[in-house]
Amino acid sequence: MNFQGSRRRGEDGIAMVLDFLLSNARLVLGVGGAALLGIATLAVKRLIERAGRAADDEKVEQKMAESWEELSLVSASPTLLKKGIEGVVMKHVAKATRQQKADLCQQPQMSSLEASKPEIKSKRLQLCVLSLQERLQQYYNARAALAAQEVQRSQSLALDICTEIQGFLHSRHPDMPLGEMNLGGSLLDDLQVVSADHACLLVPLKLETSLWSLIPGEQTLLTHPLHWMVRRVNLEYFPRGRSYWDRHLVGGYLSAEAVVNMFNKAIMETVNWPSISGTMDCVVRPVLGGLDLRLEIQPTSEKVGAEGNEPLFISMLPVLREGDVALTAQPELTSPWVNAWHLSLYPWETQRLAQLDTADGGYRRHILKILKAVCRLNPALRPLKAAPLANLILHLSDSESDWSERSLEVRFQQCITELIGYLEQGALHSYFKPAVNLLSGLSEDQVDQMGFMLYCAVSEPDILLI
Q1: Which residues form the Mitochondrial dynamics protein MID51-like C-terminal domain (predicted)?
Q2: What mean pLDDT comes out for the span 73-90?
Q3: Does 348-464 carry CATH code 1.10.1410.40?
Q4: Could you tell me where in the chain the CATH 3.30.460.90 domains are found?
Q5: Would you call 206 helix, strand, or coil by DSSP?
Q6: Over residues 306-321, mean pLDDT
Q7: How distant is the alpha carbon of residue 115 from its chain centre?
Q8: What is the pTM of this model?
Q9: How far is 339 from 2, CA to CA, in rounded Å?
Q10: pLDDT over 70 for what percent of the chain?
């Protein structure tokens, strides 16, 4: 198929793209695919037309909401990615978009009388003026960076819960060998984005070194590098019952699922949560029915302030440590293996990113927070969690040395391009455990939708920063 014609602007350029796409779509995609492509291209056309009109009396919020709905229509057509036509679609739609944007920037200035009116500029016109570097900084301040007051409030609530639970366990189960409970995760490491709505409470278990041995996943029957096992040893010298945790043995191994069930009964189903709610002046209740240990904290009406009344979710995480190895009891990740413990790579990844940024004054964590916010707020990219994004940046750091503030724009666009490549391969290997594919949990439909959205963002990064 050849696409020939003179360069046109505005409506003519869009019409040419539509005519070309719809006239050739049936040959490539068939009747059903052609209908789907017609909807997608129509949505793109309407989006660009709206950006060109930018009516003065139209509210910015309403325009952005309508634009997002139509972008969702486009991202709902993931099958185009595997039909060989996405290159044509993106090439010519992006060309028409850039031309329309150029027309907006070249519009004549308003008269002095019109300029004197206190009118709010259109969001599209602002994006036309700002560079991508400036838009990324603006997005970081608005979406990725959390207010210190909000973070402090969530940390304070989580620490109060931590104190209550630890005091309860000491009084009810004084013989249970536990370490000092503490906070962990993104809220503590300043890597949480959008809102401070979740925290992680680490519950360290103390094991006798002479009675227990941590077995790497590759050396077990599971053969999974992230599924470790904790074996009871020296039974001939120290028979069963010498260790407190012997009561949670299954087949000679400490069962992560049994430990979680024990904490669920000892804490979630036993603690007097209404009493704690009255003490903390918040509604505290366990989230039952899942495989994890979660609490929900809902501020009362008197405590609701400028930060709103969004609930805070706290996850309790039993953890075993030996050197730099941290094993967590997370049956939702290791099911159906009741004895398997999950090797957490989060401490390694976070520490490595901090070391690299400290060494060269880089903005890797800055970019990571922007990517996390983009994926959390974009429905098509929401299945992408923090781990693949962090490992994407770690892999890229091996080949790129400039992560300064001035290279923020280049690195962001490069991350998008690299991520598209990983999605096409269907694999993004862990930086510390290459045998682990961090994209293995994604469905084919999710990969297609993410790929389509990222293809659009290659030529128009603005769609990720709405």
Answers
A1: 151-348
A2: 45
A3: yes
A4: 146-209+255-300+309-343
A5: coil
A6: 85
A7: 42
A8: 0.74
A9: 60
A10: 71
The answer to whether the beta carbons of residues 69 and 76 sit under 8 Å apart is no
**What are the E-state strand segments in 273-356?**
282-287, 293-299, 312-322, 325-328, 341-343
User: What DSSP assignment string belongs to 337-350?
Assistant: -TT-EEE--HHHHH
Structure tokens given for 11: 């409506």
Q: Are 285 and 273 in contact (CB under 8 A)?
A: yes
Residues with Cβ < 8 Å from 299, sequence gap 6 or more?
Answer: 282, 283, 309, 311
Distances (CA, A) of 428 to 12, 187, 382, 388, 446: 42, 25, 17, 7, 15
What is the reported pLDDT for 74? 45
Question: Which residue type sits at 456?
Answer: C
Per-residue model confidence (pLDDT) at position 399: 94
Q: Is there a contact between 206 and 178 (Cβ–Cβ < 8 Å)?
A: yes
Question: pLDDT tens for residues 392-411?
Answer: 999 999 999 999 999 999 99
Tens digits of residue pLDDT in 199-224: 999 999 999 999 999 999 889 888 89
Distance CA 73, CA 36 (A): 10
Q: Is the pLDDT of residue 41 over 70?
A: no
Distance CA(117)–CA(115), nearest Å, equals: 5
Helix (H, G, I), strand (E, B) or coil at 130: coil
- Residue pair 311/197 in contact by the 8 Å Cβ criterion: yes
Residue 181's nearest CA partner among 154, 207, 202, 165 is 202
Question: Which CATH architecture fits 146-209+255-300+309-343?
Answer: 2-Layer Sandwich (3.30)
What sections of 403-443 are H helices per DSSP? 408-425
Q: What is the dihedral of CA 50, 56, 62, 64, to 10 degrees?
A: 50
- Helices of type H across 121-211: 123-129, 132-139, 148-172
Report how far residue 139's alpha carbon sits from residue 383's, in angstroms, rounded to the nearest whole number. Answer: 21
Residue span(s) of the chain under CATH 1.10.1410.40 come to 348-464
